Each structure stands twice: as structure tokens, then as C-alpha cells.
Please model this.
Amino acid sequence: MVFIGPHRLKHGDLMDGIDDLMDRPANVFYCDPPWGQGALKHFQTINSQQNMVPSKNTDLYSFMKAMFEIAVKHTNGPVFVEYGIRWEHEVIRMGRESGLYHISTISVKYGSKHLPHHLHIFSKTQIILSHEYTSSVIGTHGLDTVRAAIAPYCTKSGIILDPACGLGNTAQVAIEFGMVFRGNEINMKRLERTAAILRAHEDTISQRTL
Model:
């Protein structure tokens, strides 16, 4: 476990759970997990090589089921999942199987070529999204997608949880909104990128108080 100011990071496979990462429920869950079986196997193989542990060869259904179980257990607010278009029906089905309502699927962009993919929104209770909200999210890319999606649900010192936090987009937006970040990541190099973003912010705060 890594503590950076009020933020917490964990290096681990979300299949092992994240209970030790959470001291209170998150206000927002936001995750862009590996897309498809191939990407999942790739990151688990890297983890096996880096940490000298056996590869779990986890199937995609089990992985997504575990991710949604974490969302249900540790989040009181909306659940956002970015995922590739070709897996649309699987993501919706697994979210519903976990007990969540599927609120909406919004078309957004990813990568340097701004290719299309989906942002799925789930919730423990039925919520209605305004036309203005949907319009603010549709077609966005990268950090702008995270910003637009979670903006109405951010509260000062509230928690954003991302159990596959990658290169730190969710952490960056948490900082911008004055929220507390809880992140887990299986790839150590990617986790270090997230940690660097959080440390830079905390260093800036320290310098201002001198």
C-alpha cells in the first residue's frame, strides 16, 4: 500500500480484492479495465513476470464479475466503465448480473486516433440523466471524458475509486475536483505513473504552505 497525502494506491490484481484499500465507501467508481481476453492475459502475464508469481489465466467473465462486485461493495454513487464497443452486450449483462441498473451507454473516443468506444453508466438505484449531461459527455476523449462524466457527482473530499487505474487519468481528475483517490493497478510501471501524478500535486501543496 502506498499513501500519498490523503490518497491510497495498491499494487495488485483486482481478482484478489481491494478491501484493504478502502476505509470508507467511494462516491464515484470509474474504471477503464483491459478490453477483452487478450488484453487481460497480456497484463496478467506482465504481472507474473515482474513479480515472479504464477499467471492466473483469469477468464474475462470472472474478471468483469470481480470488478463489478468491487463496485457494488465499495461504491455508494454511480459506476462508470469505459469499454470497447464489441463487448457492449457482455458489459451490460455482467453489470446487471451484479445487481446494478444499466443507466446509459454513451459513445466517446479513445487513443491518439480518437477511435470510438463506450462509456457505460451503472447505478444501484435508477437515475435519470439530463440531455445537457449526455451532450457534455458524448464524443469526449481521455481526461475530458472522465471530467465530464463525474463532474455532477463530485463532492469536496469525496472518494473516487478506480481498481484498474492504469496511467492515472482518474487520479488526475480526482485532484482537479478536490477529491480523494483510491487506486489499484496490476502493472507496476503504470502504477508508478499514477503515483507520480499524485506526488507532484502533494509537492505543490507543500510548497505553497512554506
Observations:
- The chain has a mean pLDDT of 92.
- DSSP finds seven helices and eight strands in the chain.
